[in-house]
Each structure stands twice: as C-alpha cells, then as structure tokens.
Amino acid sequence: MKKTFILGASALALTLAAPQAIAQKAKEIKIGFVTTLSGGAGVIGKDMRNSVQIALDHLGNKMGGVPVKVLFEDDHFKPEVGKQKTEKLLHKDKVDIMSGFIWSHVVLASRNSVVKAGRFLIISNAGTSKIAGRLCHKNIFSTSWQNDQVPMAMGEVLNKRGVKSLYIVAPNYAAGRDMVAGVERTFKGKILGKDLTKWPTQLDFSAELAKARASKADGVFIFYPGRATNAFMRQYAQAGLTKTPLYSVFSVDSLSLPKLQQAKLTNVLGTFSTQFWAPDLDTPVNKKFVADYRKKFGSYPSHYGAQSYDSIMLIDSAVRAAGGDLKKMDTMRAAFRKADYGSVRGKYVYGNNHFPTQDFYLRKVVADADGKWTTKIEQKVYSNHQDVYASKCKMKKTW
Amino acid sequence: MVDPHLLFEQLFNGIQYGILLFLLAAGLTLVFGIMDLMNLAHGSLYMLGAYIAATVTLAADSFLLGIAVALPATLFVGILLEVIVLRKLYDRGHLDQVLATFGMILFFNELVRLIWGPAGIEVPLPVVLNASLTLFDIPLPVYRILVIGVGLAVAAFLYVLVVKTKVGMLIRAGASNREMVGALGIDIKKVFTLVFGLGAALAALAGVMAGPIFAATIGMGENILIQVLVVIVIGGIGSIRGAFVGALLIGVIEILGRSFLDDLFKLFLPVNAAETAAPAAASMLIYILMAGVLFFRPQGLFPARSG
Prior knowledge:
The structure holds two protein chains of two kinds.
Chain A lengths: L1 H20 L7 E7 L6 H18 L2 E2 L2 E9 L4 H14 L4 E4 L3 H14 L2 E4 L5 H4 L7 E3 L6 H12 L4 E7 L2 H13 L3 E8 L8 H10 L3 E4 L5 H11 L7 E3 L7 H7 L9 E4 L8 H14 L5 H19 L7 H10 L10 E2 L5 E12 L5 E13 L14
Parallel strand pairs in A: 1-3, 1-4, 4-5, 5-6, 7-8, 7-9, 9-10, 10-11
Antiparallel strand pairs in A: 2-3, 11-13, 12-13, 13-14
Chain B lengths: L3 H32 L6 H19 L2 H22 L9 H23 L15 E4 L2 E4 H23 L1 H11 L1 H6 L4 H27 L5 H16 L4 H27 L4 H26 L11
Antiparallel strand pairs in B: 1-2
Helix pairs in contact in B: 1-5, 1-8, 1-9, 1-10, 2-3, 2-4, 2-8, 2-9, 3-8, 5-6, 6-8, 9-10, 9-11, 10-11
C-alpha cells in the first residue's frame, strides 16, 4: 500500500518535473519576414521570398523537427509602414523570430518594436551603420554586411586599378550616405565631385551626368539600388559617357541585369562591382542554392536572395541547437553567434556587433554560356573584413 | 567661374525636362481647367501609355509602332474611364474627386502589377536614338533632342486646336461658362469626353517619351505628378500657355538647382554641410517659386478664365 503510494507520488512528481527537464518543443515556428513586395522595389522582395522558399524546400519545411511557417509582409518601401507591419507580425500573428528588411531606414524604424518584444531579429539585407554600431543589440544579427564594407572594397579596387580621380553619384538617404562614406574612406585618388540625389523619386540624372562628364574624372562611382539602376544606366549611355568606366555597388545585380539586357544596354557588360557573393561563388551550398533557384524560377538569384536563404539557414541552426525550444533564448543566441551553418558564402564569423566578418570580391558583368548576363567573380578584394562601426558597439566578443 | 559649356548643357537638360512636364501638364490643366475635375489618375494614364508602348516596342521591335498603338489605346481607356467613373463625379466637390481618382491610382497600379508584374519594363531604343550628338563640343543625347521636338510640336498643335478651331472655341467657352455653352445647345458632355480623351492621349504621349529615359515602372506617375501640379498652379489652371511656360520654368529651375546649388553653398558653408544641404534645398526651389507666384498672382501667371 505504502509502496504503491510512493510509486504513484514519484510518478506524479516526475510528470510535474518533466516540463523543466525535457525541452519544450514548439508546435510550430513562425518567422515574420518584412520586405517590399509592391511597387518597383517589389522585384527585390520577390527574389527574397523565392530564396526563402528554396531554403524551406531544402529544410523540408521543418527546423529541428518542428514545422516552420514564414509570414511575409510588405513594407511599401516606407519606414512607417514597415514598423506597422512589424508590430502586426509581433503582436497579432505572434511570430517567434523576425527577419527580412531590405532598407536601412525601414529597419531603423522597426528595430525598437522587435527589441521591446524580446524577439530575435535576423536582418537579411539592410546594413545600416547605426545598428552595426551604437544601436547594436544582443538579439539582432545580420546575414548580409555593413553598408560601408562593399564601397570600401570598391575603393581598394580603384586604387589597384590606378584610377586617379572619381565622380560620385548616389541617392540622399541613410544607405546612400553610407556608401559614399565607404568609398571615400579607402579611395586614395581625388574626388572631383559628388552629387546626392533625391530618393526615391528622382529618376532623371541629366544634371548629374553632365557634371560628371564636365569633371573629366577617370571613373564614375554609383549606388542606385532597385529600379533607379536601369534609369541611371540608360541615361549614362545616352549622355555619351560610355568611355568613362562605371564602378557600382548594389546596383548592377541579378535583378537589374535581365532588364538591362532586354534594353540592349551593352555598355553594362564589363563594368565592375564589389560584393560578398556572386552567383558563381564556388561553395557547395551556393552551387546547390543557385542551381535549385534557377531550376525553379528560371533566373539567377541576387545577393538579396542569397542573404535571405542564409537568414533561414542561420535560424535553423539556432532552432536545432535549442532542440526546438524557442524559449531557450540564450542557447539560441550562442548558436547564432557561432554561425555554424551552411552559408552560401562559406564559413564566416560574427564580430562583436553581430555583423559578419567575411570576404569581399570584385565582380564583372559577363554573358554566361547561354548568353544571359550575370556577374562573375574576378578576384578577392578583402579577406575576413570587419566593418568599422563594430568598435562603436558596446557588446564584447565572448564567443 | 561656371563653365559656359556646362551651363548651356544644363539649360538644355532643364528645357528637356520641362518639355516632359509640359506633355503631362497640358492634359491635366485642360481637364482641371475646363471640366473642373481634379484627376489624380492622370499619372496612371501616363504609366499605362508607357507600359503599352514598351510592350508593343518589345514585341514588334519598333518604337514607332509602340507610339502608334499606345496613344489610341490610352485614349480609349481614358474615354472609358470618363464614361464609367468620372462622369458621376462632376457634380461632387473636389475632395470627392480627389478621393475617387486616388482610388483609381491604386487600382491602376495593381492592374499593371497583375498584367506586367512588379519589375517594370525597359524600352530598347533604336541605336540612332541611344547615342549622343556633339554640338559646340557638347554631347547632347539624341533622344532628348527628339523629346524637345515632340513637345514643341504638341505645343503648336494645341495652340492651333484651342485658338484656331471650332472645337477649341467650344473648349474655351466651356472653360469660361459651361452653363451658357449648354444653353446654346452644345452637348457639353461630348465636349468633356473629348477633352478627357485628349488629356489621356497627351498623358500617354508623355509616358511613351519618358519610357526610354526612366523605364516603365509601377507608380512612375505619382512621382512626377506632384511637379506637374506645381506647373499648372504656377501657369494658371486651364491655361495651355501657362502650362508651357510653367513647365519650362520648373524644368530649368529644377535642373539648374541640382547642378549649381552645391557649388553656390560651398562659397559660404563647410563642404560637408553644403553637400547635404544643397540637394534638399534644390528640391525645395520649385515650391518656393510656387509660393511666390501664389502670393503675388494667386490666379497663376496666365489665368485661363480672364482670357
């Protein structure tokens, strides 16, 4: 009698204790993904969504055995809308993790909502200097780069190629100013002029191109993401600047190239850009990602897509480390910090500000075997490069 | 101090930009001034014109055919829009019209996204037009010269139409006193449909001309519409002449501001401050001009109704 009681009591105690001892697997993992799906920039969001789809295909729609669902929201390219959608995902849909974000100004507006809600934010693109520096946070990670790194790599390329003078044209917003600061930091030649244009409404560049030509600079450096790329490249050709080499960052990519090819703007072929990645980057994960993407969607993925693929894979590595228990924030954070997952770029490490310390490459626009225009890696510019804002971030590297 | 070559080139760019604004403003000012209809969806017709022209140009490999199809097609859409939707709005206030035509903007943007996708279309130009022509050592894009030519031709056509023909007389009469025109036995409804169709075709022409410079993209109309509204306010609502002068003024000021304001600011500001302040100030210039015109001549430079 007594024995049975003890047995029963200990069995009861066991079941009571069980929830603390055994990992509480979530029933479903919800990831909120904010990007731009409407308007001209919608083409970027589409590429990111497609790449998330490829990642989910590769994972069999499960992370650590738990079914995963990604909820996409459209920020309309506007900070206030992005913040609203972030709040909606966090509080109405109750997502477990936030990801996405193309635009620096949108992620800056949405950052505090995620931090206050105590969730992880895995930024797939926007590399604003503020979040890499002063506004870094233990729950925020990036799978892209800090804005300045890419133009800094370009500055090094210009030095190596013997470019003595440069004219700069970029849009007047957070990322545009970061890009200009980046190239100015490393370029050793003379900057003959600089125009910051109204963003995103200004698509006429006649005044700026005339000034660039009049300056007689050796090269022109630009940053025009999204649809502005094509307008700029077109007007560049029409303005008779075809003999001045064009160096770009975040402008000539897998999204703009099919359109530029359609418009027969052959002056784009052979132009240079810098990036941490290219469709032909030789890693096993990247080969699989690019091949599956091309098979499913018929075009090359862009870096936006590659980073989004990585965001999902990084989240997967943390979910698996925590055994599917999303309440184990510390375990997950430790896993994020290790970046121990199959990234399209190969192995990289996280700096103290949770931005990747990684390689950067020079890419050239070429026609592939089928005649499709794409970017091809020419050479490595930086090895294990860390952004300059990391020192402004108060977090210490303990991993 | 300022390179005269560069100044001349920037003036050319300003005039070209102004002409593009004029093509849009002419249609909008006609509709607003004569029909008393605030049509925000004018920019959507501009977008539609650009998309249709781009599609035909790509399919048939002929820019001319693109223009030839886009103009009547957009004219037809315009007439359809007038008959189905806008006719019901004439008796309502401007606020209702703004709300309804703003809804049309959303409708057309989504429609274009459904038909053509979110990416936009690049319009290939014949090689001759994609080059630049050197005049007094200044390379001028051939295509932009063409835009100026087309704009001047449209201005001349509208002048003859409005001043020298019977249709023009009706349009002018309708602008001054529409009840009286109706009382004289003229079917004012038909005149309105005609004017709206003409406005739509002008918007389409602007879209066709803009396509090869900016590419056809969703929402391209809204970007430019604000400047177009400034043009017609400065020029005087309903006045073609006002739209022409206003558009050239805005075009030249916009381009010259963007070109030389930073150098000007650098004379009395630190370089960094000048570089960030100049673009902001340049984009304000046209609004400052508008405020000035509204203060001294609230009717605009060429008020239509006073003759």
